[in-house]
Amino acid sequence: MRYLSTRGGVAPLAFKETVLSGLAEDGGLIVPELVPVLPEAEIGALRDLSYQELAFRVFRYFVDDIPREDLRRLINRAYATFTHPDITPVVKKGPVWILELFHGPTLAFKDLALQFLGHLFEYLLAERGERMNILGATSGDTGSAAIYGVRGKKNLAIFILHPHGRVSPVQALQMTTVTDPNVFNLAIEGTFDDCQAIVKRLFADLEFKRKYRLGAVNSINWARVMAQIVYYLWAYFRVAEAEGVERVRFSVPTGNFGDIFAGYLARRMLSGRIERLILATNENDILTRFVNRGDYSVREVVPTISPSMDIQVASNFERYLYYLWGEDPARVREAMERFGEEKRLEFSPEEIERVREDFLSASVTQEETLETIREFYRDTGYILDPHTAVGVRAALEFLEDYPVICLATAHPAKFPEAVSRALGFEPPVPEPLSDLTSKPRRVVLLPAEVEAVRRFISEHAL
Ligand SMILES: *Cc1c(COP(=O)(O)O)cnc(C)c1O
Which of 3, 314, 352, 395 has CB 3.0 to 4.6 Å from 13, enough for a Cys bridge? Predict the structure, then answer.
């Protein structure tokens, strides 16, 4: 399989190159040159495989430059840190199915991709005799999943900036209690925007970037999308069998469009057995406006109780546009340039009609999210985290005709404040979180200045 840029300005890449480069050099996103459609017989053969074996078979469609046994080993190591034997169990609760994606080390779905990506980076760097320093900023969730992906890996270090005192207590503890020598938590005396601006400035300094071999693990990395395809297939097989049906829907709490884009690829690989994907947003509803009205225009970000979805410009959305527009890179390039200036894209009724063959969508307010946590608990005894609750609420609007599988993207114990507002008590704290407060911490406090961060990295980089 070769990989192309959505903007057409890059010679075809092999899988390994796409992983290490992240963004394409022409500013586009990397996509596979074709989306495989699984033959009937193959779908039958995948049904009963273990999660790891299914991942191996899915990855083999996209990865032809890593020997089979090496790929198997990377997958097995990646998912060995999960505490559930099914990795992503799927359970029936009330009127919906819940796909639990929170059994990894940081209790959120990003572990599914980042545990694999950490091993993959380590493998590729060893092969090339290279080192890399991952640099990123986080307002909470992504940081800890990235840190847990990189901790203890050879030839790889990670520097994660977070706004000091402005991430939730659980999230701060999850990050700062990782004391591996290759992990650097930088608490910045400023806002998340300050953190992001510093990271951006350092990546823009090409000499610094080259000298310290800076890399990123953000949600546009193709390997992350690929890893997320697996659980759609996994859940499809289980629910189709249990319900005795051929077609299902998925409901996906969406921010950067990475998770649901993996669902879109799974839908194509399964020839439409995923009838449609329900794109659930919180009050930051740009993607819902896109699906329902063809209006993709940026508004101010509203902070909500589902913070990992507080996003306006969805970084993976360009990948979908590429397919919507018949894989025409010139059209994507022109549109993204226009979007950069006007902060809006409009779509024709004919285009919206095609979008609505792939997606249904609903935006859910914070009031409705809390109400959903409350009612779902009352009816089923199951506690939803606020992100999952957004997806469940949207699913309830589209229950007719098909079973709906709701992606549970985080464990409720990660968001005790929101759950407690809904239920009047905090959710029980599972093992990986319960002993965090007693663990040693490793974190450096720095002013919100590029120079301070630059100096720290140059003193501690591999
Ligand atoms: C990141 C995240 C999301 C959004 O996923 P995208 O791939 O950005 O759409 C939803 N829920 C949780 C808990 C997350 O951490």
Answer: 3
Name the residue range of residue 294's domain. 90-107+223-423
Question: Is 376 contained in some domain?
Answer: yes
Q: Are 217 and 114 in contact (CB under 8 A)?
A: yes
Total tally of structural domains belonging to the chain:
1
- State the pLDDT confidence band at 169, using cuts at 50, 70 and 90: confident
Among 111, 138, 141, 317, say which to mutate for ligand 1: greatest number of ligand atoms within 8 Å of CB.
141
pLDDT score for 116: 97
Is residue 142 helix, strand or coil? helix
Closest CA to 92 of 382, 375, 377: 382
HEC string for 175-198: HHCCCCCCEEEEEEECCHHHHHHH
Ligand 1 centroid–CA 282 distance in Å is 12
Protein residue whose Cα sits closest to atom 2 of ligand 1: 308
* Ligand 1 pocket: which of 117, 142, 256, 286 to mutate (most atoms within 8 A of CB): 256
Question: Which residue out of 92, 110, 153, 209 is catalytically annotated?
Answer: 110
Q: Work out the pLDDT band at 260, boundaries 50, 70, 90.
A: very high
- In this structure, is residue 201 part of a structural domain? no
Return the pLDDT at 168.
85
Ligand 1 site: residues with CB under 6 angstroms? 108, 110, 141, 219, 253-260, 308-309, 387, 409-410
Asked whether residue 368 is assigned to any structural domain, the reply reads: yes
If you measure from the C-alpha of residue 459 to the centroid of ligand 1, how many angstroms do you get, rounded to a whole number? 33
Q: Are 368 and 282 within 8 A, CB to CB? A: no
Provide the CATH number for the domain around residue 402: 3.40.50.1100
Please report the atom of ligand 1 found closest to the CA of residue 311: 8
Residue 140 has pLDDT above 80, yes or no: no
Task: Identify whether 299 is part of a domain.
Answer: yes
Token readout for 19 is 């992983």
Residue type, 82: F
Q: What is the pLDDT of residues 380-417, one digit of tens each?
A: 999 999 999 999 999 999 998 999 999 999 999 999 99
In whole numbers, what is the pLDDT of the chain averaged over residues?
A: 94
Q: How far apart are CA 124 and CA 126, in angstroms?
A: 5
153 is catalytic: no
Q: Which atom of ligand 1 is nearest to the CA of 414?
A: 13
The pTM score is 0.95
Q: Is the pLDDT of residue 22 over 90?
A: no
Task: List the residue whose alpha carbon is closest to atom 1 of ligand 1.
Answer: 308
* Structure confidence at residue 2 (pLDDT): 95
